[in-house]
Amino acid sequence: MDSIYNALISSNPFVEIFKEAMPLIIAFILLYLHYNKRITAMETVLFAFATEAYTMLIVGPTFTATFFISVAFMLDQGHRLFTGQILIRREYLLLLVIPALSSLIIFILVQVYKDPFYYPPGKKSAFYFRPIYFYIKSFFPLFAIGAKIVQEREQLSFSIYADTMKKIAKFSFAIAILQILSQFLLRSETLGEIIGLQHRYLLEQSTSFFSLRVQALFAEPKVYSAFLSLTIPLFLYDRDYKWATLSIIMGVLTVSQTFWINLLSAGICCVFLSGIASTRVRILMSMCIIIGLFMGIAASSKYFIKLYAKNQASTFYQLVFKRSVYRYDNDIWQKNNVVMGMPLQRDMELPVVDFFKDEPYLLFSGYGAGNSTFIPAQYFFGQVNYENRLNGIGGHNLNMRWFYILAEFGAFALICFFVVLTITRPQMAPFQKGYFAFVWVCFFFSQIDLFLIIVAMICAYEDGEPGKTIT
């Protein structure tokens, strides 16, 4: 655990103090602007999300400006709910209750049927209290953000969302360019960390220009790449081709394989399936096409591995194929990690898949909200985090968010989330339909919960529609 922590914190104590203080400073400024009606709730959380490179690691890696703003919104919405100022629609009340139902089912199964979990010494009581912690820290705040978006829908529209996204993207380009200059011109690790580069990525950096993995002020390069992929269709729709091109360049420099998948998803949802009127049908058809493509690639993986081996000195092959080849190549690991053609991360999704293969009945209920810590440690054997699993340290976050909902809450919950959060107003513009479907497909591969909630709430109501009911 110490080695992981040391890889995250700065070697300069003053830089670390600066980074740990920034989440509170940023959250305070954004909340001040919001409650003085200078910016909307949507802008508040999006601006905060774009600064998650700064975290209070002394408390935990998830204690970012977004977290503190989410908690503030949760307290605000809780007060409004208990004083009768707002109400909750039945379909959204169902989403609020589902994690509790999942945990209740798990507790009953463990007592009367089978207990497949591993409890580190002294941690068994945490199995029953962890869902409460999950609710307070993760689920209620996200629900509160959705409620805030709905309450401000008179001030919001899809075009305002698009303008905000593009504004953040342009600012992020400036930060990313500064990160590149700080490392390859000024060669200053301290400056790089101050402007958002994580210490662990600086440790991994080699002399190659493409090893930097820019992230602007986002939490990680893969998160930045997901954000950029969401902005590219917006730039293209407004014919801002130079900014779209710069978005693609920065996405390439994140060296994230998910970026390429998201670009493919954008083409499928917004162009290839543009004639499909139903958003839900478009989402499901897009997923089927993408999975089909993955299965074709998996069937030809040996060819691509050989092709990369012959051309690995090429910059293009390093950027596009290196990480994919690592995912598909099982000669070293001697363990198949391909599911429906997709190469799962061996330290993240694969152990969970193996666990569900052994305990398939859990697919109905999931393993319970926040209870990923109690997946038996043997499923992580051979991974860097194996010792932490034995000691019950840390949780287990899944980047593939459809899979995350399935694993945490079960198949019934995934269906409910999909049905409720794809409710859209009847007269929605064609591009907006395609974009909404694109966000949902990206959600399968990327951790973009916040963006999904925002776009879903905007698409569910008429622009400028008044009202006081929570979604």
Can you give keywords for this protein?
O-antigen ligase like membrane protein; disordered C terminus; 23 helices; transmembrane helix; two-stranded antiparallel sheet; two-stranded parallel sheet; single chain; membrane; transmembrane
Secondary-structure map with pairings?
Layout: H1 2-8, H2 13-35, H3 41-49, H4 65-82, E1 87-88, H5 90-112, H6 124-151, H7 158-184, H8 189-194, H9 199-204, H10 221-237, H11 241-253, H12 257-272, H13 279-299, H14 301-311, H15 315-320, H16 322-328, E2 338-339, E3 342-343, H17 349-358, H18 362-365, H19 386-391, H20 401-409, H21 411-420, H22 430-445, H23 449-460, E4 469-470
Parallel strand pairs: 1-4
Antiparallel strand pairs: 2-3
Helix pairs in contact: 2-3, 2-4, 3-4, 3-7, 4-6, 5-6, 5-21, 6-23, 7-10, 7-11, 10-11, 10-12, 10-22, 12-13, 12-22, 13-22, 20-21, 22-23
Describe the structure.
The chain is mainly alpha-helical. Among the domains are: 156-255, no CATH class; 279-411, no CATH class. The chain has helices at residues 2-8, 13-35, 41-49, 65-82, 90-112, 124-151, 158-184, 189-194, 199-204, 221-237, 241-253, 257-272, 279-299, 301-311, 315-320, 322-328, 349-358, 362-365, 386-391, 401-409, 411-420, 430-445, 449-460, and strands spanning 87-88, 338-339, 342-343, 469-470. Strand 2 (338-339) and strand 3 form a beta hairpin. Helix 3 (41-49) packs antiparallel against helix 4 (65-82). The longest helix has 28 residues, at 124-151. The chain is globular and about 60 Å long.
